[in-house]
Amino acid sequence: MKKSTKTLAIMTIVAITMTGCSTQHVKPDVAEPVSEDKAALELSKKQPDSTVMKAGKTLNLVRVLDGAVCKNDQQGALGEFLLYADPLDIDRIKQQKGEKIFHSFEQKIERFSAQVFESVINTTSMSEDPFALGEYEANQKLAKQVASSFKSAVADEIDKFQQETSLTIDITAFPAAFTFYRTGCDINKMNIPE
């Protein structure tokens, strides 16, 4: 081999070796980041269960309750709650007391549900989660926390109502429908369905 060919071959080998050593491979993302539009689409696909089991009874979804609370001028929440009731109890009570009794039942349920929701929001930290990967994840965590706290807090009210009325019910928060306000809360400007 000629000296220039040898030098060229050595330089090529050195260049390839140096390129291989200096190039860093980028790890692919473990999970595809969720865009806000994609996240909204996922939430919109979630439908509440039409039935739940409680004490060996199948309860049917009979009503969706809306709730809105401003904790202060900056923070608050808008949410939906699912009211389930035993259809056999409903039929029995209609026969015994008539349909008009259900209007007072609805008012009582709405009242204690609203009070429990307000209490839960007032005691929940609405601050941004520093460990969340974004606003979507922070809202998901907060929705799960509020739903869990609501479930625990409303249990006594449900028990009292069932003892007074003999109507088996359950009320659960629907986390997919929660909207949280952290930078301004005005109950008059919330889009509360009629």
Could you walk me through the main structural features you see in this protein, from its secondary elements to its overall organization?
This protein is α+β, with helices and mostly antiparallel strands and 194 residues long. The protein is 49% helix and 19% strand. It has one domain. The chain contains 5 helices and 5 strands. Strands 1, 2, 3, 4 and 5 form a 5-stranded antiparallel sheet that branches. Strand 2 (57-70) and strand 3 (76-85) form a beta hairpin. The protein is elongated.
Offer a concise description of the structure:
By secondary structure, the protein is of the alpha+beta class. It has helices spanning 3-22, 36-45, 87-97, 101-123, 135-165; strands at residues 51-54, 57-70, 76-85, 169-173, 179-181.
What brief labels describe this structure?
5 helices, 194 residues, Lipoprotein, elongated, 5-stranded antiparallel β-sheet, 49% helix, single chain, alpha+beta, 5 strands
